[in-house]
From TrEMBL:
This is Stage V sporulation protein B. It comes from bioreactor metagenome. It is a multi-pass membrane protein. The chain crosses the membrane at residues 7-30, 50-69, 89-111, 123-143, 182-204, 276-300, 321-340, 352-370, 382-403, 415-434, 446-464, 470-493. The gene is spoVB_4. Keywords: Cell membrane, Membrane, Transmembrane, Transmembrane helix. PANTHER family: PST FAMILY PREDICTED COLANIC ACID TRANSPORTER, STAGE V SPORULATION PROTEIN B. It is found in: Cell membrane.
Length: 512
């Protein structure tokens, strides 16, 4: 197996996730403009419950598989790596089947008792088979990520998204005349179809790969012992993800209800909730394609370095990942803040521009939370992001509960609550990384350099915006010029140097 750096893996996932986000961006635009926020609001009520069941099914095992396989490979124990994969595949197949069948049976009860809108039942019934499909697929993705081969995961995600977008929109558009709930069911059908194709693609790549034998004989642990190790690594992640998915489920039930107390009708509240997820968070999360790629590739990369006791490498990779997150996050949020109105109008959600601006002010903490969680998981401190999320939620939920029900705040209060949560979680994560790695925090690199670039970018937008306001497409050129100016400032103030550029795969070879 060719040696792969974590930056190489991150770039592979970055390219795939960027394409997926572009497709997803187009998908959300088509939904919001041709299907409507109400249909997406219904789908968004069911999706957190689906994710909660999926997290319960996979139990954090894919991440544990990735970590255990990367450690085995670092010791050239490939027979051990294959044993870990086979055990996890059996475990996830069984758990996925059991949970899918159980959820299908109790779906009518869940729709009736826990959600304010009974129209979600049909969506539940369509989503439940996807739990089994994703469970099996996650075993293969954990295996490839542990081998630090991100290409199979990237290809399966691209194919999955292509099918999800095409089938989802076509089904929703075709079923819309039959009612909003039917259109929302079409979105669920697109998700199920995409997951099936994604599983088929990653299995095909597993069959085509060339396996490598160990350079010396190693005994593999008994499957029962492997399961014990998997669960030992997985249970803190499981608790954390169950907690996170549970919070999303609570938000899906709580936000529409509190909006009704603020004076909105049930359908208006559902539509606003759909616009929050379909427009605002689609825009806010678009730049996180980069942090997701970093977080995914960091776990096996840092685990491998820690297993070899290469603590200087751990420190270096952690600092690189956090710097990259900030350098990409700052210009993205400046763009979202300045162009909040045209972006919201693009999604036919003009009333949410102020919500987007509030979230943009604190969005950098959302991106840092994702990257720092990946670092802590790679260090084996998987319980810390869970604890930090719990602390964050204890503060965030009451703020959301109170402010969202206020007529003066409404969704603005929801946005403020999310920003507070992002800030608390990311700050606690960063403090833990500094404590366990000894990573120095250079405020000039982490704060001053990107802040100077962001200020320069904002000033350029304010200066040149009147000249680009003649057509919406001209905003794209304005954004490109602003991004070029931002990175030029970073290059001249030392925030980015030639060594940083040389580490980027493909681009770096032209700079040597």
């Amino acid at each position: 197996m060719a040696k792969r750096t974590f930056i190489y893996g991150a770039v592979i996932l970055l390219a795939a996730n960027f394409l997926n986000r572009v497709l997803g961006f187009i998908y959300q635009y088509l939904i919001m403009t041709h299907i409507g926020g109400e249909a997406f609001g219904l789908f968004n009520m069911v999706f957190p419950m689906y994710m909660f069941a999926l997290v319960f099914t996979t139990a954090g095992i894919p991440l544990a598989v990735s970590k255990m396989i990367s450690e085995a490979v670092s010791l050239q124990n490939y027979s051990r790596a294959r044993s870990i994969f086979r055990t996890s595949l059996l475990l996830l197949t069984c758990s996925g089947l059991v949970i899918s069948v159980a959820l299908y049976i109790i779906s009518p009860l869940l729709a009736e008792r826990f959600f304010p809108d009974p129209r979600v039942l049909r969506l539940f019934l369509i989503c439940t088979p996807a739990i089994f499909v994703v469970s099996v697929s996650s075993a293969f993705r954990g295996y490839f990520q542990g081998m630090q081969n991100m290409l199979p995961t990237a290809l399966s995600q691209i194919c999955e998204q292509l099918v999800r977008v095409s089938v989802g929109f076509f089904s929703a558009y075709t079923l819309l005349p039959r009612g909003i709930e039917w259109a929302a069911s079409g979105l669920a059908l697109g998700m199920l179809s995409g997951e099936i194709i994604g599983l088929f693609i990653i299995i095909l790549q597993y069959k085509l790969q060339k396996t490598k034998k160990s350079s010396h004989q190693n005994e593999s642990l008994h499957p029962i012992q492997t399961m014990k190790e998997l669960f030992h690594l997985a249970y803190p992640v499981t608790i954390g993800r169950l907690f996170s998915s549970g919070l999303s489920t609570v938000d899906a039930m709580l936000i529409p209800q509190r909006l009704q107390l603020a004076g909105y009708t049930a359908r208006e509240a559902t539509t606003l909730f759909g616009q929050l997820g379909g427009a605002v968070f689609t825009l806010l999360n678009f730049p996180s394609v980069f942090t997701f790629a970093l977080a995914t590739s960091l776990v096996p990369a840092i685990s491998e370095a820690a297993a070899r006791k290469q603590f200087q490498t751990v420190k270096l990779r952690s600092a690189q990942a956090l710097r990259m997150t900030i350098f990409i996050g700052v210009p993205s949020l400046v763009i979202l803040f300045f162009f909040a109105e045209p972006f919201s109008a693009f999604f036919k959600s003009e009333g949410t521009s102020s919500i987007l601006r509030i979230l943009a002010l604190g969005g950098i903490f959302s991106y840092l939370q994702q990257t720092s969680t990946g670092i802590l998981q790679g260090l084996g401190k998987v319980q810390l992001p869970v604890i930090h999320s719990i602390i964050s939620a204890v503060i965030r939920i009451p703020i959301l509960f109170i402010l969202t029900a206020s007529p003066q705040w409404g969704l603005k209060g929801t946005a403020v609550a999310y920003v507070v949560g992002f800030f608390i979680s990311s700050t606690l994560n960063l403090a833990a990384i500094v404590h366990y790695t000894g990573m120095p925090v250079d405020l000039r690199e982490f704060l001053l350099h990107p802040l100077m670039g962001g200020i320069g970018m904002m000033l350029a937008f304010r200066l040149f915006h009147p000249f680009f306001a003649f057509h919406p497409l001209a905003f794209l050129l304005e954004i490109i010029l602003g991004a070029v100016l931002y990175f030029a400032i970073l290059f001249f103030n030392g925030g980015i140097n030639r060594d940083d550029l040389q580490r980027i795969p493909w681009l770096g070879k032209f700079l040597r």
